Amino acid sequence: MQSRRRYAVAPACLAVALVAGCGGSPDRTAAAAPAPSVSAPSSSSTSDSPTTPPPTTTTSAASTPRTATPSSATPTTRAASASAGALPPVPLAGAEPTVRFPRNEPAVGAGANATIGPVPDPVWARMVGYSWTQGCPVGRSQLRYVQVNFWGFDGARSRGAVVVNASIADAAAAGFTRLYDLRFRIRQMRPMDSSWGRNPKGPGADDYAAMRADNTSAFNCRYVGGQEASKVYSKHAYGTAIDVNDFENPYVDSDGTVYPGTYWLHRRGPAPGVFSSSGSDAVRAFTSQGLRWGGLWSQPDYQHFDR
User: N or C end of the chain: smaller count of CB under 10 Å?
Assistant: First the structure.
């Protein structure tokens, strides 16, 4: 059993003045699967370029949730914690996901308050048969449940969770903590599970429905999105990849198809929820933790970070 320990990374709180994206007519690529039939707001996850699957980690699950520990070799300190309350709602853009302002869980505690623990029984029960099935390259003991507060598009402090491989749990917690301190907007953050339905193109939960809903997620035992015929497991199947704000940070498939839509493909300037460049503070929130950014690939995957 691992005892609870305080998350030591406390990056400087930067007041970032974010502006809405450019206006224009919506131009969304049709996704292959219908939106999930759920009462809770939808979420999104995206695909990544085919890569050689990494070896599975043998780390066993911790039995007690803990506050996150940084994986960066050069930790920073927070000058001041982000104030409680709310930010202004993000203005309506020229294209919007299926749910503009999801009903997110309220924030818990001060700041980002990131915690890492084993995947809870109720969460795992919803994952089995959907985001996890027999034959997946990793099992429950190799996965972790990372919870963190974030700033929603509605301006509220909210709380979400991602399921990741134990090998990147600290990096994920540190990255999301940095995004919180930057007041970077996240639409919603929900694990891939039965609420999304099954992927119509292969194993895993329905990634296409989740992308249309602009969810931030990580583990989903599926093939590379848009290339399911290859039957190559995505890094999401290992829990070593994270997708953030799929709608604002689209993915370009090898055949040129854009998921979930094209509106934000050429609107890469600073805007709420957008990863604008490799040198931006938001992208560096994860790359400084040893993750690579898919926005630099020949077929860009702007939402994608992996190890």
Answer: N
